[in-house]
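Extended Data, panel c. Modelled sequence:
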Amino acid sequence: MNLSRIFILRPIATSLLMVALFLSGLLGYRYLPVAALPQIDYPTIQVQTLYPGGSPDVMASVITAPLERQFGIMPGLVQMSSLSSAGASVVTLQFDLAIALDVAEQEVQAAINAANNLLPSDLPSPPVYNKVNPADPPVITLAVTSDAMPLTRLEDLVDTRMAQKISQVPGVGLVTLSGGQRPAVRVQVNPKALANAGLTLADVRTAIAKANVNDAKGSFDGPERASTIDSNDQLTSADAYADAIIGYRDGGPLRLRDVAEVVEGAENARLAAYVAGEGTPFRPAIVLSVQRQPGANVIGVADRVLQLLPVLKQTLPGNVDVRVVTDRTTTIRATVHDVQLELLLAVGLVIWVIWLFLRNARATVIPALAVPLSLVGTLGVMHLAGYSLNNLTLMALVIATGFVVDDAIVVIENISRYLEQGQKPVQAALTGAGQIGFTIISLTISLVAVLIPLLFMGDVVGRLFREFAVTLAVTILISAVISLTLTPMLCAVMLRPGQHAQQQESGRFFTRLLAWYEEKLDWVLRHQSITLAVAVGTLVLTVLLYAGVPKGFFPVQDTGVIQGMAEAPQDTSFEAMAGRQRQLAEVILQDPAVESVVFFVGVDGINQSMGTSRLSIELKPLEDRDARAPVIARRIMEKAVALPGMTLYMQPVQDLTIEDRISRTQYQFTVEALDRDQLDAWIPRIVNALAQRPELEMVTSDYQSPGRMAWLNINRDAAGRLGISMSAIDNALYDALGQRLISTIFTQTNQYKVVLETAPRFRLGPQSMENIYVAGGDGKPVPLTSLATLEERPVRLSIARQGQFPVATISFNVANGSSLGAAVKALKATEDELSLPAALRTQLQGAANAFATSTDNQVWLILAAVITMYIVLGVLYESYVHPVTILSTLPSAGVGALLALIVADMDLGVVGIIGIILLIGIVKKNAIMMIDFALEAERSEGKEPLAAIRQACLLRLRPILMTTMAALLGALPLMLGWGMGAELRRPLGVTMVGGLIFSQALTLFTTPVIYLWFDRVGRRFRGGKAQSFGPGQEHSHGEERGLKVPGREARP
């Protein structure tokens, strides 16, 4: 059956169908979203609860534990981790990939509702959940500054006019306002003056709560008129609060101003953000960080926010400056643009190869049309499948450029031979296309089959490469359709017999090459045992190289943003830490590659303590700097060593974020224990042991050295005698030192808090405890020091848990010259050496865990690809033997790919494995083309195997070289990759180019020898008479082999 016949005879219908395919692809391209990588985020939800003044232990037991108890019973929860620090509890919930984010959201809300009755009654606001992964860096960071406006007023403007509007943008998961400065009325009490008046802070708190109300009051509804009722029951300014009466002394009113200073300030005075950059001095700012929902398109979210920005700026006063400090999408757009250029280069190189071999403009145009048609047609299918234009799908299209011309080249080459024999163009097209149809189908099916295992890769890596595999498969299938329809039709219309005579004259180089190949092939056929030994040697070498090559996961990308953490001694105060950021800024901005830097100081749910700050550095565009992000991060850290008492950790932000927590260095490893004492004992030992390993560097832990705690030892007997309860003592301490929120001011646009505390001079250190009074049973103030003694103790300033158990996260970088595979082995070896107790549970997290999972699957993945290929080829050829001959070409490709990676000093990561799997699909084409023609020569011309395979090798040399060169030049732009994101693409190009060059050189000689060896074995197996194979022997047994290849016509 000739599939191409109807298309050759109906050229107008064929051309119009191709135009329709092209237009549908262009239409799909218009609607394709752009992204860095396919969307594979774990559904992640973060629950945050703020309780100002709460110590880490109080937060962990009173807030985090009841919430964890309810979250722990949710179905589909993969991992739950929590961090309790001073005044903040953050629980991060990571769900299974199969669970929809909206379903997870409903479960979380139900769990929060169930835990509500166990949470403290004076919690200022209930737990708030956000659909956001805390480890996913902000899509956009905005810094808002003003020279003429106090920061509290600025924060209010940004909160009411910008943050709310940006939060409404589809795809935005969380808008975080950093820098504290939320407006509030701060009541700063003089405790001694208050005690002299016979009052305590509890009296002030009660008086303010009663003086500031805004409740329903009813209305009048008379016979004629109705009127509503309102009053001046709410206090709205610091002056109004200062005038509030809190009691009477000597017959006169005692106003708040008599015992306290009432000021307008910030709700939390221990939070700040700073911004610095080229042309911008180090200064406080309000920083807006926009994070996306898991699964939302990064560029789509950023575009919508940036479109909204000019509108929002118009609502702000003219003296307010809004700057985009970091924009992750700039580098993503640059990456996609660079891949698109590489795609165009690949198309150009492939078309040049065709012209080089055919030396005929008309013959070159035909396969050259197949390339854009296949690629553009695929874009339409990508749109229907809901894919995006990202690094991986574009890589698939670049690689496909080399594949899609193969089929067209094979068809044209075959039709050309019939034209040279003097057939008319239409007849030549009908005969040539009909004869080659089965080869095209077998080439295509076997190439698509090799991608099937990629679809079954598990977990994150599988999700990641599904789009790659499907995009490539669709392109290959479309190219096969074009090769069986458009290509033979164009051959019938455009090619003429006379042109091929000229073409042969111009192809002197190829004639010389053919003569050289014929000479070497005859030598190889005379020395078959040597060639077989070489083939076996490559198989052994492949196994050895695979065992020895360094293993990795994903290359470290340069996204133009570096995130960091700065650590000072854990008892560092807020003011001291804020001062140190200025020194850090000076060091960082000395680097010529840095554009700007933002610092976040204070405990905000991400920073564990006052002694930890985090920072985000925006780098200049790639062409304006001298190095890539990892190098820049390393040299800034080296400079920061000079700062006394400060340690700086930095890592480049990655497009692929699998982690669910922020760590100091790149890869994470958790240690869970039954209690904190075990962590105290073991974590320093584990960190020290790992730091000695040459495979790792910058080994650190979030299990910080203890800070200071003032421990109050209350004499309960004395307290009971004076009628003072523990609750009253806790309240007295909270009122004085906890920035307690005691009342709310309601306005039309926002709500503001009233903060109670003692004046700053009465809370400078533990010695200030003598200024705190608590009401006795008779209502008179009693100094707290008469009831309690004070001692200083060490304390953890943050409590981390995973699955409700205490946990420490150890993070590390891979040392220069090492690999992630070696680092993970070093971890396991260190665990074994230390003989950790059974109660400690260790687990790799995030990217390191995904690497360990993918490494286990690598060998199985390659095996699955080979077995799939064998089955498909066995079905196509109705033979058990010939698929083995075809697959014998694979080890040479493996050797070439692995050697290329070693020479290029690259790890064998996920991208390299994909390259090797694609090589399995490409290199077997050469063998298929040889064996197809040899079998046909044996059957239809009665040739003996040696003559048949020799003729096949010589006849198919040109198309084999053309298809290999096309695939090689398609991958070359990826190997030479430049610009943003090249780190991700280069391993694919290196494996493909290395594998193709090496396998091409070998398989042209090994395949015919293996074919003959199997033929010999087959005859012996069938009990036939053993015969030696040498030139000149005439023995035909094509018929006895019984290998019928369907869909062929006998060659004339």
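The first strand starts at residue 44 and ends at 50. This feature is highlighted in the accompanying rendering.
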